[in-house]
């Protein structure tokens, strides 16, 4: 018995069975209201990061020269609220957003960057930018939610959205303060622990504590850049921490901190869970930040570490992780289709709607072809059905778990 032949016949049964009553099954079926949208990248719960990961996926595909599926782009635009903001996920977009809709600056700014890169969405991006401007804090920055205290990551991703739509971030002010002013307040001096780094926010006592992820974001923000960075054409500059006289030097200081943190092992570490583990995502962000400064030597060193070590992490984490690696490769001029033996572009596409639809087409085509070839046989397709349903117990794993679960 040929396994591929059994697989094709079982696929045919699945197609035919869709129109006939199914046998009793003790396993619960997912509620229709909780089914994942077909146009969404990844199969994890989208209520925390749906718009974010969709935006990163579309941005990454665009940088790789891939035209994203229309359904995926339409899903993203369909998530927008009437006031221009975005929440992580709205299961029912026919219902208007209200005060309970969990909109935030990060999802909104990421969506702006993606839609601006794809082009043709001026109305949507314009409304989103207007909303972001309307909730700017008095210090010139943004928090994760409207009215929340400014933080380096949120302020930087909004700067990226402003720049992507042709705005000049330095001129977007509140009470005379620009986003750059907010970021400079979060920069650590060149003396002491964390010299040159950025804090996410001041702690409860007002102290600034170095944070590598916030530093990578702060560097991009002060350079007026978004999530996508083009490969630098100049050589590696000297990264030395000096007293910051403005956004440019503060960005260099942040780069010097990242370079030092990456120097020993080529990667950043995470202390989550009580033990220090390699932090693949923050390392990818640091690569982009260093590349934005033109510091290609340390950026490429850390990219090489990612090429050797990040494939498993990305497979487990899903589309946003693949997107981060693609953006890091793009920023350093590397080929994301040959990333340590992994085609990141193909892997990302496999988590999205186009791949799912194409795979289903291929299964149905193969099933129909085999069914037709067996139609003149004395045994016929139904003999194969009986045998293959039994054999299917042993090969069922071929049809399950094709994608790792997206972690929020």
| Average pLDDT over all residues | 84
Which residues sit in consecutive blocks of at least 5 with pLDDT less than 50? Answer: 1-33, 373-408
Order of helices and strands: HHHHHHHHHEEHHHHHHH
The profile of the biggest β sheet is: 2 strands, antiparallel
Portion in beta strands: under 5%
Number of helices: 16
Overall geometry comes to globular
Strand order of the largest sheet: 1-2
Oligomer category: single chain
Helix content: 40-55%
Number of strands: 2
Helix/strand structural class: mainly alpha
Alpha carbon gyration radius: 24 Å
What does this structure look like?
The chain is 50% helix and 1% strand. It is mainly alpha-helical. The protein is globular. Mean pLDDT is 84; it is low at 1-33 and 373-408.
Structural features:
disordered N terminus, two-stranded antiparallel sheet, disordered C terminus, globular, mainly alpha, 408 residues, 16 helices
Write the layout of secondary structure elements.
Elements: H1 3-17, H2 50-63, H3 70-78, H4 105-118, H5 122-134, H6 152-164, H7 179-184, H8 212-222, H9 247-263, E1 268-270, E2 277-279, H10 280-293, H11 296-309, H12 311-317, H13 319-332, H14 344-349, H15 353-373, H16 380-395
Antiparallel strand pairs: 1-2
Helix pairs in contact: 1-15, 1-16, 2-4, 2-13, 4-5, 4-6, 6-8, 8-9, 8-10, 9-10, 10-11, 10-13, 11-13, 12-13
What's a quick, concise take on this entry?
With 408 residues, the chain is mainly alpha-helical. It is 50% helix and 1% strand.
């Amino acid at each position: 018995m040929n396994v591929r032949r059994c697989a094709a016949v079982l696929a045919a049964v699945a197609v035919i069975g869709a129109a006939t009553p199914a046998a009793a099954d003790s396993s619960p079926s997912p509620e229709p209201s909780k089914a994942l949208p077909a146009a969404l990248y990844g199969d994890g719960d989208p209520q925390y990061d749906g718009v974010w990961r969709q935006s990163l996926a579309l941005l990454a595909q665009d940088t790789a020269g891939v035209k994203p599926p229309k359904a995926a782009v339409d899903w993203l635009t369909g998530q927008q609220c009437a006031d221009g903001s975005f929440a992580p996920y709205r299961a029912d977009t026919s219902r208007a957003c209200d005060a309970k809709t969990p909109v935030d600056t990060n999802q909104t700014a990421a969506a702006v960057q993606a839609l601006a890169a794809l082009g043709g969405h001026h109305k949507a991006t314009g409304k989103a930018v207007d909303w972001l401007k309307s909730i700017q804090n008095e210090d010139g920055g943004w928090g994760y939610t409207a009215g929340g205290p400014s933080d380096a990551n949120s302020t930087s991703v909004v700067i990226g959205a402003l720049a992507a739509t042709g705005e000049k971030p330095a001129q977007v002010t509140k009470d005379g303060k620009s986003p750059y002013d907010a970021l400079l307040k979060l920069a650590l001096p060149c003396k002491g622990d964390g010299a040159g780094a950025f804090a996410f926010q001041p702690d409860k006592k007002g102290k600034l504590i170095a944070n590598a992820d916030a530093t990578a974001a702060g560097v991009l923000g002060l350079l007026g850049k978004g999530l996508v960075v083009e490969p630098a054409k100049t050589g590696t500059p000297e990264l030395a921490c000096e007293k910051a006289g403005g956004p440019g030097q503060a960005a260099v200081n942040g780069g010097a901190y990242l370079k030092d943190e990456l120097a020993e092992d080529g990667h950043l570490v995470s202390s989550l869970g009580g033990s220090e583990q390699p932090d693949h995502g923050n390392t990818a962000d640091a690569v982009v930040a260093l590349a934005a400064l033109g510091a290609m030597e340390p950026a490429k060193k850390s990219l090489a570490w990612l090429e050797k070590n990040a494939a498993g992490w990305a497979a487990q984490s899903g589309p946003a992780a693949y997107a981060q690696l693609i953006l890091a490769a793009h920023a350093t001029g590397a080929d994301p289709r040959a990333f340590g033996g992994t085609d990141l572009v193909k892997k990302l596409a496999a988590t999205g709607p186009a791949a799912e639809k194409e795979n289903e087409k291929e299964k149905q085509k193969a099933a129909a072809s085999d069914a037709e070839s067996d139609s003149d046989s004395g045994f016929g397709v139904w003999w194969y059905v009986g045998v293959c349903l039994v054999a299917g117990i042993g090969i069922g794993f071929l049809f399950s778990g094709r994608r790792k679960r997206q972690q929020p």
